[in-house]
Each structure stands twice: as structure tokens, then as C-alpha cells.
Amino acid sequence: MNILGIETTCDETSAAIVGLDGEGGAVIRANEVLSQIAEHAAYGGVVPEIAARAHVEVLDRLIERALEQAGTGLDDLDGIAVAAGPGLIGGVLVGLVTAKTLSLVTRKPLLAVNHLEAHALTARLTDGLAFPYLLLLASGGHTQLVAVKGVGDYVRLGGTIDDAIGEAFDKAAKLLGLGYPGGPEVERMAEAGDAERFALPRPMLGRREADFSLSGLKTALRVEAERIAPLAERDVADLCASFQAAVTDVVVDRARVALRAFSGVAGHPTALVAAGGVSANGAIRRALAALAGEAGLAFVAPPLALCGDNGAMIAWAGLERLRLGLTDDLTAPARARWPFAERPSAAVAG
Ligand code: KG4
Ligand code: ZN
Q1: All structural domains of the chain with their residue ranges
Q2: Confidence of residue 349 (pLDDT cuts 50, 70, 90)
């Protein structure tokens, strides 16, 4: 079994081949990822037109390289998976049109995968995790706590009412004069910082629903930064450490609430799972691992290379869908918005 996975929804172009070994275990045979960060850095964020053009320029070469590395040809594939959204529509179209063309030419099934679902299923690719599990999906555009019950069966237990966690990191970095993307920069600066120096708020702490609100935290950070401006390196480090500690406290509190709600919608979880770019953050990983330990659960987070956007997770989600016969045809739309998890019905939510 070999599935090609194509990812072009944001600022990484990626092509990967994922298959199964003799015992049915997942194998990543190739995972070519090309980041466009350098092309967007000057603008402090992703510019959709630049992203779409950059995807066009490199995607065919990346697919070729992935096939070569996996030692397989297009004709040996069992399916062509592509992230059909959510994301920047120009980029999504580049991947989707490429995948449809390959599917048409090779007569292999097309698998139009939801990018968020692919993040959600990555723990099964890396750790062979069984359903159901509690997922914290945190990236630049999304923040959700989800009960992952099965392929295509996701219940949303909480989400952000304003900024995504990655977005909050990016905005914090920008206002402190650090580079883009902000998450890794803030984490790096925080290492040498004093997390106790600034008493930043912990928005939503203790609330009954597992929702997030992060824009107030960002505003509080700005107020502190302006109060002590001009900022020395030490100040920036302390602000980063204080900010990261506040976000981490909120994440743990919200995840704890979601764990409590979990049994009502999905029974007993096999694990607490983190996915998406923010799951690369060491402080958040350690805090979630401790929370999982308290609850007697395993904690699973992808290796760093699979936290951010990549084709392997798309190929894997495609493989999971193909096994269930969930294939798509050439009418599959590109979607800028595509929610993947629904709120539980009021009766279940209580
Ligand atoms: O999943 P991803 O690669 O792309 C999206 O689908 O958004 O996530 C990118 C986001 C960015 O906001 C980035 O700042 C954040 O993940 N991020 C981090 C870290 N590494 C990446 N946030 C906090 N700490 C990190 N180490
Ligand atoms: Zn992503």
C-alpha cells in the first residue's frame, strides 16, 4: 500500500509517500517539505498570492523527489491524497488540481483530505494510537479540543473565541520585534527569561466550557511592553517567558476541562494528544504530559518534523479514508473554510 500525500494549504509545500509494512504498521517512505518562510518573512506573515505562486513553482519537483526517494512510480500508487482545505484558497487549488490531474491520468482513487483531520490522525501514523482520544489541535489558524472517536467522527469540545494559539504566539513575537513565525522565536527567548516577572492574565481559567480566549492576553503583553519600553534583551526574554507560561497554564486548564467532558461524548480516552504547529512547543508539551500523567493517560505528540504542516499526514489521512472506501471524485471542491468537528448536541453537552 502506497499513498501520495500533497499539502499546499498554507506556507509549506509538501509531497510524501506513506504506506503499510507487512504487519499493517504505517511507514513514511518519503516526506519532502519545502518551507516558504523566507519568502514571507519580510511581510511578517503569509501573503496568499506569494504562497500560491511558490507552490506552483515547486510542487511537481517535490512529487518527483518523493517518488524517487520511496522507490516507487506513479503507477504503483494506491491513491492520491491532497489537502483540499481549509486554507488559503490559491494554494489549496494548486494542490487539488495537481492531485486531480494525477488521479485522472493514473486512474488511482482521489482522496480529498481535510487538513485539520490530517493533524488529528497523525498520532495514529506515528504511534498507532487506538480511538478514542482527546486531541488538542493548535496551529496558526486553529485551536480546538476534540474528541477523536473514529475516522470522520470528531466531536468538538472547545475552541477559541478569538485568536488561535499559534496566532497569539505570532502576534506576541511581532510586538516584541521578533521574527516570523513567532512561536519558535518566543520559545527560544523564553528559555533565558523569568516567567514570574510579569503577572499576565490567564483568560477563561476555571470556566466550565473548554473554550479559549487569547486576545486579552496579547493586549496585556502589549501594555507591559509599552510600560517598560525601550526593551532590553532581558525584558524581551522575561516578557516571552511570562507570556508562554500564561498560555501554558490556559492550555492545561482548558484541556483538563475537556478531559472531564470527554467521557460524556466518547467514553474513556486512550491518550491525550497534541497536534499542529504549536505542539512543537516544549513548555506546552511538558505541561500536557504532566496533565496526562495525573489522569493516568498516555501523552502523545508527533516528532517535531510532523508537528508542522507536511504531506505525510495528508497521505496517512488518505490511507485511513481509502481503507474505509471513503474516496472522492473530480468534483471535490477546494475549501477555504472546512470545519471538521461539530459541537456535541445540546442534550449530550448538558
Ligand atoms: O500547523 P502549522 O505548521 O501551520 C498551520 O496550519 O497554521 O502551525 C504554525 C503555527 C505558527 O503560528 C507558529 O508560530 C506555531 O505554529 N508554532 C509554535 C512553535 N512552533 C510553531 N508555537 C509555539 N511554540 C513553538 N515552538
Ligand atoms: Zn496545519
Answers
A1: 2-120+309-323, 130-304
A2: very low
State if residue 308 touches ligand 1 by the CB under 6 angstroms criterion. yes
Nearest atom, ligand 1, residue 309 CA: 3
Question: Cα-flanking dihedrals φ and ψ of residue 196, to 5°?
Answer: -95, -10
Q: How far is the CA of 223 from the centre of ligand 2 (A)?
A: 30
Hey, do 2-120+309-323 and 130-304 end up sharing a CATH topology, with the first three levels equal? yes
- pLDDT class for 345, splitting at 50, 70, 90? low
Q: What is the pLDDT of residue 255?
A: 98
| Topology classification of domain 2-120+309-323 | Nucleotidyltransferase; domain 5 (3.30.420)
What Rg do the C-alpha atoms of the chain give, in angstroms? 20
Instruction: Name the pairing type of β-strands 271-275 and 298-300.
Output: parallel
Q: Is the CB of 184 under 6 A from ligand 1?
A: yes
The region, left, alpha or beta by phi > 0 then psi within -120 to 50, assigned to residue 136 is beta
Q: Which atom of ligand 1 is nearest to the CA of 11?
A: 4
Write the class of the CATH domain 130-304.
alpha beta
Confidence check: pLDDT of 350 > 90? no
Each residue's pLDDT tens digit, 251-268: 999 999 999 999 999 999
Q: What ranges in 78-214 are assigned the alpha helix state H?
A: 89-106, 115-127, 165-175, 182-190
Assess whether pLDDT exceeds 80 at residue 332.
yes
Residue 143: CB within 6 Å of ligand 1? no
Q: Whole-angstrom distance between the N-terminal and C-terminal Cα of the chain?
A: 43
283 CA distance to ligand 1 centroid (A)? 14
